[in-house]
Amino acid sequence: MKKKNRKGQLVRRIAVALVVVVAAGSVFGWFYLKSQDRTFDKFRDAGAGINSFLGSFSRELEGAVAKGSVDGLLSFYSADYSSPRRGHWKLCDEVSSHGVSHSWLRVATEDDGKVQEFDREKLRAEWSAYLQNIATIEGASMDGAKVSFDDPDRGLGVVCKINITEEIEVGKHARVTVKYILNGRDRVGRALQDRFFFRFWLRSTGEGDSDWEIMRDELLTDSEVANMRVVGESPGFSKLDLEAAGLVDRDGQVYLHQRDPLLDPEREDVELKFAVIQHAGAGLSACDYDGDGWVDLFFCDGVECRLFRNLGLDDGMPKFRNVTETAGLAGIGRAHSAIFADFNNDGIKDLFVSRYEARCLVYLGRSRTSRSVGERNDDEIIFEEKSAEMGLNLIEPCVSACFLDYDRDGFIDIYIAVNGDAKTEIPRIPFFARNGKANRLLRNIGGTKFEDVTESAQVGDTGWSLAVACGDIDADGWVDLVVANDFGRKNIYRNRGDGTFHECAKESGTLDFSGGMGIAIGDLDGDERMDLYTSNIYSNQRWLGEEKALLQFSRNLVRSKWLFKDFGEFMDIYAITDGNWRSLGKMAGEGNSLFLNRGEGKDWKFDEARESCTNRAGWGWGVALADVDNDTDLDIYAANGWITGKKADDL
């Protein structure tokens, strides 16, 4: 009996000790997390203060051009400024082609191979010489007054922001790399843009977050950046007068896109957990749907789509007519993308429209008469909605699509990008969100109906997909698929030729973690292999996406239920990055990516062309490839932008 009591007492003591240890560990952990929170908050506030300092620097530079004096600009440099390895910076190696010239800013060396040491007087001369070649800065006041970033008419002007924070000791000093963009005109009236990268050593000068001064500076010469001036010697495009071109509604007003009313968070009856989706729906399809040799335009719209038929040139300018009603396409809303293709092989283009949480639509085109395609008038091609007859009853957050004949049966199939449910979900992991809806592959069966073969084909990606594209990437005669996911990775599906696909983004080097929004496929380097260009986010807050911010995200995760709910996804991240998950914070805001195909046969391998200067294209949206200047080389068009918030300077 005594032995049992002693055993029971021992068990109770061990239990009490464990409770004390767990409690002490919890208290210690709570205090540790709170201390780390405070450290991160100070880091974030210091970085925001430095960006504010750089914003003031930008506005002062705009005024310096108008006033012809750099005195105010030098006030941002410390009285003891000294940069021993700075050197003189000069533009050189100019290359001109098709009315556009490029030159690169480089560090000049002396005869002995060394670079000049700089003090304030040499700095004054350097800035003065640089600004002498600039006549005006876009959006800046001509009298030298500083124009507020909140002024909607100020233009781009000068932008100076943190690129990467290399070191911040709050309240003392910092070392940051800075991106500098100047938009203006030179002394002969040519449009120019400077895109340079600097490294600043900063010293705190007061209590305020934006109280800093530059103690030393250097030109950033890392392989991942290009210090470049681009000058437009002649206009390559002219702006089309939309009203004169006929791109107008029934009331004669120029067509203006409207957002989906059921994705409008300003309405009382609309609740969106992920409100960003309200800005996503605005697709455009360009296709000669009636076969008259002129490219027509179909605008996707949240309220009512429009089809404008191209009537050809009138005095050298294109003319369009709104034929939405006569073509049988009135009343289509909630549309995100549209593609024309001949589904039933009757020689007339048909139409597929993807819609957000509304039934996707298939319209079959037909001729009103028995005339040949080349003789039709603008009211002789009409479309009839045949979604139900074609077996299409898909109601998901569908955002884009591409056409392909993946099984080579001679009939066009459809692959659809499906996003997430914005009403009830948000992308839970900022760089690897997997809680979206599955993409869909619809097989065209003899031109009579579509069959969902997503599961059997193994292409049901569940990221928050925004774009899909297709092409024969490995030149084996079978069309492959590429997917861009917002808040996530890219997927490449190699077509095995047996009705299934193999996902190989990791092995091919194209995971490309970021806010993926667009994809284009084409041979960009002339080696007869299909390359990839993807649009992502190049963020002004990229410096916050570094390791410190990633660790803060991890600490917040520990205190939430999502660590356990998404544990499988976190294990996938660890596996897919080979344990190098800390690199995701830097990668997520790096911008667009160009991947050059270096594979042979089934050995898929891509090299990311960082030296191509194609990544810093802003907050990327859609991308397209075309030979714009008719030199037989593909060029890149990259659309970008964002919705201006209360702080207009943060774009």
Q: What key phrases describe this protein's structure?
A:
alpha+beta; 30 strands; 19% helix; four-stranded antiparallel sheet
Structure description:
There is one protein chain. With 651 residues, the protein is α+β, with helices and mostly antiparallel strands. It contains 10 helices and 30 strands. The protein has helices at 2-67, 71-74, 120-132, 242-245, 454-457, 505-508, 547-558, 562-565, 567-576, 584-587, and strands spanning 89-97, 100-107, 134-137, 158-169, 173-186, 191-204, 212-219, 228-232, 284-287, 296-299, 306-314, 317-322, 335-341, 350-355, 361-367, 381-385, 398-404, 413-418, 440-445, 449-452, 464-471, 480-486, 490-495, 501-503, 518-522, 531-535, 593-597, 606-608, 620-626, 635-640. The strands form 7 sheets. Strands 1, 2, 3, 4, 5, 6, 7 and 8 form an 8-stranded antiparallel β-sheet that branches. A hairpin with an 8-residue loop joins strand 13 (335-341) and strand 14. Helix 1 (2-67) runs antiparallel to helix 7. It is globular. The chain starts with a helix and ends in an 11-residue tail after the last strand. 35% of the residues are buried. The model has no long low-confidence stretch (mean pLDDT 86).
